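User: Need the bound-state model for thymidine-5'-phosphate:
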Amino acid sequence: MFITLEGLDGSGKSTQLHLLREALAADGREIVATREPGGTELGELVRTLVLEGPDMTAWPEALLYAAARAQLVAEVVRPALARGAVVISDRYIDSSLAYQGVGRGLGVEQVLELNLAVVGGLLPDRTFLLLVAATEADARQGAHRDRIEREHLSFHQLVDDGFRQLAAAYPERIVALNGSLPPAELAAAILAEVRRAEQGLPPASGAARADA
Ligand code: TMP
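Assistant: Bound-state model below.
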């Protein structure tokens, strides 16, 4: 099973990844947690370049994220899935669709095509999108801001819009949740959806869903 967490910076993804990892570890299965960009030696180098490096235009940025992703899938994700592990990634393709496709204006279709090509078509079984208003996400962030986090609020609002469009376009994969709920409540909602996915069931609509 391949699970991804998505949302704006400051949406609480990392906390939920940690809670989900703990909950699933109790099953006794191997859990591989990773993050994007990163998770491999090359990916971490690309992370520094893309987040702390010089200004770049939109396609080079999209290509760098795609390069890190291609390496992560080949080196970590596919081997782990082949062993029967559960893989949980803090961000994946949907981040590129929302940030580069919508935020940078490259177009969702074009960015999707590039990314599907470099990962051999691998999409997650379930994606949890934590929705928080761009103003709230901004207020939750720490003092150090990377190249993307330093973008204007209007950019993050576009990205948020992009994520919401993706959730509407892929309801069988993306579960949009209200990221302002207490972490324990969100964690319970995510775990319940993972259990459904394990049984081959589609996402349910419930109280924690942002569109409920
Ligand atoms: P993180 O802070 O959640 O680790 O993510 C790194 C930053 O990179 C975050 O601001 C979102 C951005 N990003 C993209 O713009 N496109 C992508 O494909 C990914 C994975 C992240």
